[in-house]
Amino acid sequence: MSLKALRTLVTIARHGTFARAADLLSLTPSAVSLHIKTLERELQVELFDRSRRQVVLSEAGQLAVARAESILSAYDELADTLASGPSLRGRLRIGAIHTVLARRLPKALLWIKTHHPHLHISVVSGMSAELARRVEDGELDAAITTEPVSPYPQCLSYSALFEDRFWAIASPELAGQSVAQLLASQPFLRFDKRAWAGRQIEQELRRQHLHVTEQMELDSQEALARMAAMGLGVAIIPIADDDLERLPPATRLPFGEPQLRRTMVLLEHEKSQRRHLSAVLKTALDASH
């Protein structure tokens, strides 16, 4: 019985299809099927109810998945324990939202490369909600996201890293107007509503009964800010104070009563066995700020 086959079984159970498991494990569909057939032959049980069109675990399959998760967790914990020490070794899979990927993460990765050269980190980008799902499903060990906005997976835990504030940005020629006046007279350049920060903006607009005429919707603070500064409309974005100072001349007004803030967090599964590795990432972000 191989660990690879057990990992294949658990991945199918978590994601619901053989095809998705093949994609996540970088295997061919035939290899996934072979892993399951081999397990069934060795255990002398049927792991799936093949009378149904959808992938459904049999009673024996449900028990096998629970035991397989325990075995894989113990193995991963052993590997990480042996890898820890003065010079950490291993691989950490992380996700990061675009803002962090473009600004803070490169310096942190350089710090890790210098202080822990045998710790290899792979990085993917995405929006907070998407990255949270991938941490929940075990595809990522940790992610740097906006503080979760309900609903979000309850099996996740998070620790604060740093804060951004929300600002309304418009052309410098519109100085002297309030946020309400700007939104009433200018096209609205919306921060993506699928992002957790986008949900915060939408909730505050509704709370203040502010009506907008939407012009466009983007997932890039910098692009929205520059368009607004050029006179294409008014944007509301979360942005760090040092990044705010680097923007072109613009009308900048605090958004929210009181001003909205978003906390950037390190998001992990509450059962993660790799917290000692992700703690290095947090240290690196603090050291490279």
Note down, in words, how this protein is organized.
By secondary structure, the chain is an alpha/beta fold. The protein starts with a helix and ends with a helix. Strands 1, 2, 3, 4, 5, 6, 7, 8 and 9 form a nine-stranded mixed beta sheet that branches. It folds into three domains: 3-83, Arc Repressor Mutant, subunit A (Orthogonal Bundle); 90-161 and 263-287, Periplasmic binding protein-like II (D-Maltodextrin-Binding Protein, domain 2), CATH 3.40.190; 163-262, D-Maltodextrin-Binding Protein, domain 2 (3-Layer(aba) Sandwich). Helix 1 packs across helix 2. The chain has twelve helices and nine strands. 46% of the residues lie in helices and 22% in strands.
Give the name of the CATH architecture of the largest domain: 3-Layer(aba) Sandwich
CATH topology of the largest domain: D-Maltodextrin-Binding Protein, domain 2
The CATH class of the largest domain, by name, is Alpha Beta
Please name the fourth-level CATH homologous superfamily of the largest domain.
Periplasmic binding protein-like II
Shape call: elongated
Keywords: DNA-binding, Transcription, Transcription regulation
GO molecular function, one term: DNA-binding transcription factor activity
Protein name: HTH-type transcriptional activator IlvY
Domain HTH lysR-type: 1-58
